[in-house]
Amino acid sequence: MLVSGLAFVNVNIWLAAVLIGIATITMVTIGIMLVRAMDSMLGKKRKCLAV
């Protein structure tokens, strides 16, 4: 769907793919870091919260 939408606009598909990949890696890395920080702060309480 996204690729077909970009086909109508003059966009370099490789640049768009690289930028999407960088954004994905960044968000996943931030998410992992947040979970690790929450785990160290909450400890065993985390299991009770089902986080």
Provide the descriptors you would attach to this structure in a database record.
single chain, 51 residues, mainly alpha, 3 helices, rod-shaped
Number of helices: 3
| Structural Rg | 18 Å
Low-pLDDT runs of 5+ residues are none
Number of domains: 1
Strand content bin = under 5%
What structural class do the secondary elements suggest? mainly alpha
Euclidean distance between termini CA atoms = 33 Å
Q: What fraction, in percent, of the residue positions are helical? A: over 70%
In round numbers, the mean pLDDT is 80
Described by the principal axes of the CA atoms, the overall outline is: rod-shaped
Order of helices and strands: HHH
Describe the largest sheet.
Answer: none
**Beta-strand segment tally:** 0
Question: Which secondary structure elements does this structure contain, and how are they paired or packed?
Answer:
Elements: H1 2-7, H2 13-42, H3 45-49
